[in-house]
Amino acid sequence: MRMHKLPAVVVACVGVLALMLFAAPASGQINYDVDPKSSTDGTPVPDVDKVGVPPGPPIGGPSGPDLGCWAATASNLLGAAGWGVGVTAQAKADSIYKDLINNFEVNPGDGYIAAAGNCAAAAKWWIHNIGLNSAMAGQGYDPTNPYVDFGLVERTLIEPDYNYLLKELARCQYVGVTWITGEDTGHCMTLVGGNYGPSIVGKAPPHQSVWHNSDNEGGMAPNWVDDEVYGNDWAKGFPTWWLDVNNDGVGDWVADAYFKACPGHPKPASAVGNFDVHYYRGPDHLDFSGPTPLWVSGVQMLVTGEMKDAYTGWQGNPDPEWDPTGAPVLYVPNEEIRDYHKILYLAVDFKEAEDPSTTNVFNIQVTDDEDVPAALDDWWWSEDNGQILMKYVFDDQPGWEKIVFPHADYKNLTGNILEWNLATECVPEPATLALLAVGLATLGLLGRRRQR
Ligand SMILES: [Ca+2]
Ligand SMILES: [Ca+2]
Ligand SMILES: [Ca+2]
């Protein structure tokens, strides 16, 4: 029962096979309030399936159970939202799952994931190490993808949460739900549709939800179905969300967390490709101390972009540094260039809608190396106030920049702060731009360009 001592959403899909054999396949038998949706590109929502089925060894794998449901669910969410490489959402999701296997297989060459993990951490790891890492151009790098507003809630889910998630399916791209299954490890599946719960007026039974599951499903290979339908048992312990996975009318699993991917405001691609600091919680290290290997998640800071290692910071270090007093103050490396000035973009992603009473983003102070504040030039909220992009403009190119966060949650990624990331770029002063234009005109470059 090891996962229960750990933070929620550490899941691994053990003990699901027997239940799945009784699962009813979807066959359009009822009208859903929210029909199983399509992905951003109009193709069916991805359904990444693990190579193996717990508790047995993977098909063609060396040994041990395949515990990669957390990575498969993260792949479905991201692939449906247009991340990954491939023509269809399914191909994109499969490419992401392959990336996750390559990085989180327990033994090199396993070809599957034999350790429990966390769906949200897997998605975050992929976004930052591949999706927004300019070194991965052609392999999944896509700084223009708008799906950068993620949501994470880690507690026992209740009926209003479920109704909210169904509504979010219309606006966002899929939802991963983590379940306490009563086994050593939990399970994670992708919610794609269903019927609202009984508190919504007029919503009588059947109370069914539709899922994409990475385990064996309603049929047998090769005729496995994508959409799997299970009853939501609202009577067992209302308002707790129980799922009836063996179709006997009684709930078996309790919903323990959700993770969703929604449209937000990405930073400009030019800045992301220049110098990008990612601060997020991702799979950190393997823990073999329990009955099941486990990817433990931790806070990670990653620097990417063309100018990575080229800039220097407060103490001559090329990496961003936290203030030694322990205060949530970060020093960001830079390079002084005459006649250019700095623009800094800061994106903050909240777990739920921002709560200005604690972590108010407008209390963040961005200053230069002489503590002169940079002007907050503009900002953009996501539709649900769950993510914000802020643009700060400096007068010049300081030796380094300083970010003073108003709360320790920004440093520890606790409370409502899911992550933040920032990117910087330098632009010519207006005077320099004018001179540049004159120079180009003199050389005839502007005229030549117009003729093309
Ligand atoms: Ca499946
Ligand atoms: Ca049941
Ligand atoms: Ca968010």
Outline of the structure:
The protein is an alpha+beta fold. 21% of the residues lie in helices and 27% in strands. It is built from ten helices and 18 strands.
Write a structural description:
- Helix content is 21%, strand content 27%.
- The N terminus and C terminus are likely disordered.
- The longest helix has 16 residues.
- The chain has two domains: 261 residues, Cathepsin B, Chain A (Alpha-Beta Complex); 125 residues, no CATH class.
- The termini are far apart.
- The strands form three sheets. The protein has a six-stranded antiparallel barrel. Strands 10-9-18-13-16-15 form a six-stranded antiparallel sheet. Strands 11-12-17-14 form a four-stranded antiparallel sheet, with no helix packed on it.
- The chain contains ten helices and 18 strands.
- By secondary structure, the chain is an alpha+beta fold.
- One calcium ion binds next to loops.
Q: Classify the helix fraction into a percent range.
A: 10-25%
Distance between the termini: 67 Å
CATH topology of the largest domain: the name is Cathepsin B, Chain A
CATH class of the largest domain: Alpha Beta
Could you tell me the mean pLDDT? 87
Task: Report the structural category.
Answer: alpha+beta
CATH-assigned homologous superfamily of the largest domain: Cysteine proteinases
Ligand types: calcium ion
Low-confidence region ranges: 1-9, 14-28, 444-452
Strand order of the largest sheet: 3-4-5-6-7-8
Counting DSSP E segments of at least 2 residues, the number of strands comes to: 18
CATH hierarchy: architecture of the largest domain: Alpha-Beta Complex
Which term fits the overall shape? Answer: globular
Order of helices and strands: HEHHHEHEEEEEEHEEEEEHEEEEHEHH
Please tell me how large the radius of gyration is. Answer: 24 Å
The largest sheet is: 6 strands, antiparallel, barrel
Q: What share of the residues does DSSP label as strand, in percent?
A: 25-35%
Number of helices: 10
Q: What is the total domain count?
A: 2
